[in-house]
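U., I forgot to send this yesterday:
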Amino acid sequence: MSTHKFAFNSTFSLLNVDYVQLNKSWNYKHIISPFYRLYLINEGHGTLSNTTQNVTLEGHFLYLIPSFTQCSYYCPSDLSQYYLHILESTSDEVSLFVGNRKIFKVPATSDDFRHFKRLITLNPERGLFKSTDPKEYEKRPIIQEFQELNNRVSLSAYVETQGIILQLLSRFIGTEDFRSDSETTLSYKVSETIRYIQQNLQTHLTVTFLAERVHQNADYFSRIFKESTGERPATYIQLKRVERAQFLIITTDLTFNEIATETGFESLAYFSRTFKKVTGQTPSVYRKNNRRV
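Result:
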C-alpha cells in the first residue's frame, strides 16, 4: 500500500459565514479577493465566470473560489445560498491552492448543509449586513475586524470551526482536477529559498545570492528550482512580487510608488510594466476594477 505524504502548512481564519437570499442586484465584475469564498446553493440559479470558465450556480452544489482568483458574479433572478469567507496563512507563504486558481464545483452532500448550519450556530452574527458587494469587504482594516471576532468565541467553538473549515476544503482537494503541488516533494533547499523570497520581497534578490545561501552553483540551483516549482527563480520572484502588489492594491490605500517599494521593484515604471505583463492590466486599472475608491 502506498502512502501520500506532504507538508500541510496552511491555517485558516473565519471571516464571514451566513445564509442569504439574493436577486438580480448581485451582479459584480472582475472581483479578486485576498481570501477564499465558498458557496453552498440552496435554491435558484446564477453564474460564476472568469476568462476561461463559466460555471452555473445551482441548487445542492458546493462552490469554491480560491484567494486571488478573478471571478464575476451574476444572479438573473433569485438565488439563496450559504456563504463562507476564510483567510489563509501559511508558514512558508505557499497557498494550499497555489496551483488551482480556478472555480471549483462539486455536488453537495447533507453533511455540507449540516456543516454550514453548525458554523452559523458557532459563529453568530458573522454575516455581511451592510451590502452584498464583494468589493465592500476586502480592505485590510475590515478583514482585520472580522478576524478579531474569532477571539470572542470559546476555545471549543474555535477548534470546531477550524475542523469544519478543513472538512469543507477537503471536498475540493479530493476532486480529480485538483492539482497538488505537494505531489512532487520540494527539496529542503528549494523550500527554504521559497520561504526566504516570500519574507524578503522588498529587498534586492538575485539568483546568485539565493544559490549562495544554500551553498549551490547558480546554474544548478536555477535548474532544480524550476524542476520543483515550474519557474526559474527570477520569474518566480517577479510573480510573487506582483501577487503581493495585488493584495496591497486591494486591501490598502498605499500609493503605487509605495507599493512598488514595498514589493521590491526598483522603480515605479518597472513596477507598472511588470504588473501589466503579469496581470494584463495596469495597476490603476486593476485598482479601479477590484475595489471601490
